[in-house]
């Protein structure tokens, strides 16, 4: 009897100890991400760009919060379409997330004749990271000082195709900003696509092209050096870094609002508790002073949209860009 009582007491003590041990484990170790199985963070663009850089900013702290590694997988091509299609086919179990953008999840569906995923139906919105306003710039020696000047000059040259506008490529957000301005104003411009922002901005500085839209990360240093003149910004609010530069809406084109946004998506059907946990952890990371400063250094305005708000915003973006692309008759090369 004595031995049996002692055994019962030892078993009870062991159960209490085990219960206490599990109680102090991180929530992630008890939840959907058991330590040892990595989460794949799909980046549908090559290394080095904004989407890739943001993924690397988020991956490490997200892995720490969830108690499991987060591995970046770059699958670039076709404006983000190739990697997005791969992510859409991944199991909806919380082990695959995707860095989606205005291109991959709003523009491409109207730009490409065939897309191997539906930007809305194939994904579950998780978190909006932020939006990067674009700046309309002209060479420092340009005679154009306001948006009114730009629109009037382009209208006067309509027979020749209007003013020329550079971009890092067909379907990119700088190209789409120009097309949105043309669509809303009824003024023609001639699109001059380049292979990247670098050569595009150099030709604008040199006066070979009349103007261009791009992020403050690209054009900001040239504005500061006096090589480029800012005309207006694409967002609905002025930028902290360019407080004297009006928005395009303020400059006369009412209703204009555009940002090159970055978000996180999961495959459609990912369980809601997983989506909510991912959203909560990513938003905690985005809210830290370090990440806020990093986002702003990219020229981005951080966001705190809920998954539902991101979903509604994305649907509105798909509809908006479908109208612009159809009106301009643009197709991906």
Task: Write a structural description.
- There is one protein chain.
- With 333 residues, the protein is α/β, with parallel strands linked by helices.
- Helices cover 45% and strands 20% of the residues.
- The protein is built from twelve helices and ten strands.
- Strands 1, 2, 3, 4, 5, 6, 7, 8, 9 and 10 form a ten-stranded mixed beta sheet that branches.
- It starts with a helix and ends in a 5-residue tail after the last helix.
Measured between the Cα atoms of the first and last residue, the distance is: 85 Å
Residues in β-strands, percent: 15-25%
Total of helices: 12
Can you tell me the residue ranges where pLDDT is under 50 for at least 5 consecutive residues?
1-31
* Rg of Cα set: 24 Å
* Major sheet summary line: 10 strands, mixed
Characteristics:
alpha/beta; 333 residues; 45% helix; single chain; ten-stranded mixed β-sheet
Summary?
45% of the residues lie in helices and 20% in strands.
């Amino acid at each position: 009897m004595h031995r049996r009582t002692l055994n019962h007491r030892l078993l009870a003590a062991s159960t209490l100890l085990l219960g206490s041990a599990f109680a102090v484990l991180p929530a992630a170790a008890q939840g959907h991400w058991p330590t040892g199985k990595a989460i794949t963070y799909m980046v549908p663009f090559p290394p080095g760009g904004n989407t890739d850089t943001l993924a690397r900013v988020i991956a490490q702290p997200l892995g720490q919060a969830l108690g499991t590694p987060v591995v970046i997988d770059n699958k670039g091509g076709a404006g983000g379409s190739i990697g997005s299609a791969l992510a859409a086919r991944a199991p909806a179990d919380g082990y695959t997330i995707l860095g989606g953008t205005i291109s991959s999840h709003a523009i491409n569906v109207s730009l490409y004749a065939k897309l191997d995923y539906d930007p809305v139906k194939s994904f579950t919105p998780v978190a909006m990271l932020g939006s990067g306003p674009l700046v309309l710039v002209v060479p420092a020696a340009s005679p154009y000082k306001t948006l009114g000047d730009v629109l009037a000059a382009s209208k006067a040259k309509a027979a020749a195709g209007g003013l020329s506008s550079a971009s890092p490529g067909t379907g990119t957000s700088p190209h789409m900003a120009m097309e949105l301005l043309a669509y809303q104003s009824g003024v023609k411009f001639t699109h001059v696509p380049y292979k990247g922002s670098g050569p595009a901005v150099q030709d604008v500085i040199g006066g070979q092209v009349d103007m261009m839209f791009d992020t403050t990360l690209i054009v900001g240093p040239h504005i500061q050096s006096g090589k480029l003149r800012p005309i207006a910004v694409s967002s609905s609010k002025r930028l902290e870094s360019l407080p004297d530069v009006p928005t395009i809406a303020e400059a006369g084109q009412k209703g204009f609002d555009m940002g090159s946004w970055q978000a996180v998506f999961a495959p459609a059907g990912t369980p809601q508790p997983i989506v909510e946990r991912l959203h909560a952890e990513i938003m905690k990371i985005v809210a830290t002073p370090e990440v806020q400063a990093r986002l702003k250094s990219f020229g981005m305005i951080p966001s705190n949209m809920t998954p539902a708000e991101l979903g509604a915003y994305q649907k509105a973006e798909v509809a908006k860009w479908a109208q612009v692309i159809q009106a301009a008759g643009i197709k991906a090369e």
